[in-house]
């Protein structure tokens, strides 16, 4: 009997996992997910966007607009950062799969932790300054990035 031929690619596998972990996010507007894998395709970290451990998310705002301290942006940890914080091994030379292109703050974290490639799905904020800064830093650091569109997420 021949082996099965319709198995999913590694990209599809890890991007699906990023989407699944994103479903843990309580954010009412954006659910981000990230999966970090080493060169042997072993998962070393996962994360989703949410408040730091130990904070009661009922005591902090989820708003997108208003004074900075009254919005989620002052408090939320992004999926990419949480994947680094939750890593169970070094992330040097690893690949991160993420549902959204990383912002400038996440790019700094990825650079500092040795990530060598970013595979992202959505780039909906491409033309905003934060994401322009991110691409500039990733380029300067020699970190490759490419877009991957999950077949599963299209359904």
Automatic annotation (TrEMBL):
Pfam families: dCMP_cyt_deam_1. InterPro entries: APOBEC/CMP_deaminase_Zn-bd (IPR016192), CMP_dCMP_dom (IPR002125), Cytidine_deaminase-like (IPR016193), dCMP_deaminase (IPR016473), dCMP_deaminase-rel (IPR015517), Deoxycytidylate_deaminase_dom (IPR035105). One of its GO terms (molecular function) is zinc ion binding. One of its GO terms (cellular component) is cytoplasm. Zn(2+) binds at residues 78, 103, 106. The active site is at 80 (proton donor). Belongs to the cytidine and deoxycytidylate deaminase family. This is Cytidine deaminase. It comes from Candidatus Kerfeldbacteria bacterium RIFCSPLOWO2_01_FULL_48_11. The lineage of its organism: Bacteria, Candidatus Kerfeldiibacteriota.
